[in-house]
Amino acid sequence: MSQTHRTQNKPANATDDGRSENLRDSPMMAHLLDALEARTDIGHYGCLTFVMIARHFLPENKIVDLLSHQPDVTAEDAHGLVVQVKGHNYNPPKRERILQWQSQQDFPICPTPDEPGTCNVYSELRFPDDIYDHINDFWEAEASHKSEE
């Protein structure tokens, strides 16, 4: 992550609003990282969620390495998923989307789905500013489209 979000006296993972630049400060991402490191099958949507979020915090080769230990996922497959997510510039999924995807597989992407407010990476992690700009542009376009109908 670039140094542009940091001040000289501030730790690398701290932000003024309590969000972090360390993936492990998100309980859901720590859960996914632990499962990946243990070579536990996190499912297709677990992999997709992981890439959509981790690509903003980890080097591509680390993401590919972690995913390539999933059942039926080669390093080439893992790299392809990263390239696809980057190519489409997918935003990190909101909690509701994560829970929707989780219902379609066995592995619990969100380890605490019954606790409101959990598994919301936007409140836990500090993403690059362009992510927030992209989200704002999307909602402005949606509002404009609906007003034209």
What does this structure look like?
By secondary structure, this protein is mainly alpha-helical. It has one domain. The protein is built from seven helices and no strands. α3 (60-67) packs across α4. The longest helix is centred in the last third of the chain and has 20 residues, at 129-148. The radius of gyration is 16 Å and the shape is globular. The protein starts with 26 loop residues before the first helix and ends with a helix. 26% of the residues are buried.
Itemize the secondary structure elements and their pairings.
Layout: H1 27-37, H2 43-54, H3 60-67, H4 75-88, H5 95-102, H6 121-124, H7 129-148
Domain module count: 1
Q: Helical stretch count? A: 7
How many strands appear in the DSSP assignment? 0
Main sheet: strands, sense, barrel: none
Kindly, what is the distance between the CA atoms of the first and last residues, rounded to a whole number of angstroms? 41 Å
> What is the chain-wise order of helices and strands?
HHHHHHH
The backbone outline, from C-alpha atoms, is globular
What percentage of amino acids are in beta strands? under 5%
Q: Indicate the structural class.
A: mainly alpha
Roughly how much helix do the residues carry, as a percent range? 40-55%
Q: Nutshell version of this structure?
A:
This protein is mainly alpha-helical.
What are the main properties of this structure?
7 helices, mainly alpha, 149 residues, 52% helix
